[in-house]
Amino acid sequence: MNKGIKLLLGSACCISLFLTGCQAENSDEVKEKKVEEKTIGDKISGENVFKVSMLNDTGNDIVGFSIKTDTMDNFGENMLKEDEVFADEETRTLYYDASEAIEANEKEQEGSEMQVSPEYTIKLDFEDESYELHAFPFEDVKEVTIKLEDDICFIEYESVDQEATVSTKEAEQRIKEELEAQSEIQENNSAEEQSQQIISEQQQPVQQPVQEQQPVQEQQPVQQPVQEQQPVQETTPPADTGSSANEGCLGDSVETW
Fold first, then answer.
1. Could you give the C-alpha distances from 230 to 125, 191, 236, 245, in angstroms and in order?
2. What is the pLDDT of residue 78?
3. What are the residues facing 153 on neighbouring strands?
4. CA 131, CA 122: separation in Å to the nearest integer?
5. Could you tell me if 122 and 106 are in contact, meaning their C-beta atoms sit under 8 angstroms apart?
6. Which residues lie closer than 8 Å to 167 by C-beta, 6 or more apart?
7. What pLDDT is attached to residue 249?
8. Fewer C-beta within 10 Å: the chain N or C terminus?
9. pTM above 0.90, yes or no
C-alpha cells in the first residue's frame, strides 16, 4: 500500500516537473518571438491603423519604405529606422496610421455625392533603384509577399474579400507602360518646343550694334576778309577850248565872201 502511494506521488512529481519545464520552454519561445518581431513603422493601434505582415521576396534589400495617397504630392518619410534594412527573405509587420490620409481625402471630396476611399501607393527604395506598389489594398490584406520580376515590382496576397490568391503583376505592368508612354510624349513635346524656339531665334533679324553718335559740332561761319573799298574818284569835266556851242553846225566855218 505504502509502495503504491509512493509510486503515485513520484509519478505526480515527475509529471509536475515535466509540465513546469514545458511551460517554461513555451514561455521562453513566446518571449523570443516577441523580441524577434521586426516592424515597419512604430507598433501602434487605433481605428485607422493598418497592420500587414510583409515578406520581402524581391532578391534585394529594401533600404527605404514610404507611403502616400492620391491627395498627397510627395511621399512621406522613410518608415524604416535609421541604418535599418528590410532584408531579402525577411518578414516584417507594417503598422500604418491612415488617419491623416482619410481626413485629407474627406476634405478633398467634400460636397461630392460619391465618396471614394483614398488610394495608397508604397514606394520601395533599393540600393540602385526605386519601385512603386500602386493601389495597395490595405483593407483587403493581412499578409503580402513583395516580388520583383521582369523589372516589375508587385505583390501577391490572399484577398480577404475574394478568399483567393491575387497577384498585381499585370496591373503594375499596365501602369508602367502608361507612365512610359506619358514620359515619351512629354520628351517629344519638350524636344519640339526647343526646336521651334531655335527656328524662331534663327528667323529673327540680327540687330547691328548701335554706334554712339558723336556730338555734332556747330560750324562757325567762315569770315571772308573784308576788302577795303577804293575811294571813288571824281570825274573832272573837260577843259573849255573856246569852242562855242554852235561848233560843228553847218556854216560855222564858211568864210563870208
1. 115, 91, 18, 36
2. 97
3. 148
4. 8
5. no
6. 154, 155, 156
7. 43
8. C
9. no
Radius of gyration (C-alpha) of the chain in whole angstroms = 57
Q: 76, 128 in Cβ contact below 8 A?
A: no
pLDDT score for 90: 98
C-alpha cell at 136: 495597395
CA distances from 173 to 75, 146, 176 (A): 21, 15, 5
User: Is the CB of residue 173 less than 8 Å from the CB of residue 152?
Assistant: yes
Q: What is the 3-state secondary structure (H, E, C) of the chain?
A: CHHHHHHHHHHHHHHHHHHHHHHHHHHHHHHHHHHHCCEECCCCCCCCEEEEEEEEECCCCECEEEEEECCCCCCCCCCCCCCCCECCCCEEEEEEECHHHHHHHHHHCCCCCCCCCCCEEEEEECCCCEEEECCCCHHHCCEEEEEEECCEEEEEEECCCCCCEEECHHHHHHHHHHHHHHHHHHHHHHHHHHHHHHHHHHHCCCCCCCCCCCCCCCCCCCCCCCCCCCCCCCCCCCCCCCCCCCCCCCCCCCCCC
- Set of cell numbers at residue 215: 556730338
Long-range contacts of 106-115 (CB under 8 A, 24+ apart): 108/71
Name the grid cell of 112: 461630392
Series of mean pLDDT values for 10-residue runs along the chain (257 residues): 52 54 56 72 94 98 96 93 95 96 88 86 97 96 97 97 95 95 85 78 68 64 60 55 47 45
What's the rounded Cα separation, in Å, for the pair 124 and 132? 6
Rounded-to-integer distance, Cα 58 and Cα 157, Å: 15
